[in-house]
Amino acid sequence: MPASTLATIGRPRVAIGPVQRSDTSPQALKQLCGEPDKGVTAWPLADIARAVRPDQQQRALLDELKTSAAKAADIFKDSCTDSYAMTPTGRLRSMQNRISATLEAIKIVRPALENFYSSLSDEQQARFNALGPHVGERSPQQQEATAQTGNCGDSKSDLAHLPINRIAASLHPAGKQKEALDRLSDATTKAIADLQAACPNDVPLTPVGRLEAMQHRLEAMQKAAKLIEPALDEFYTMLSSEQKARFNTLQRVASP
Question: For 212-225, how does the pLDDT look when each residue is reduced to its tens digit (9 = 90+)?
Answer without folding.
Answer: 888 888 899 999 99
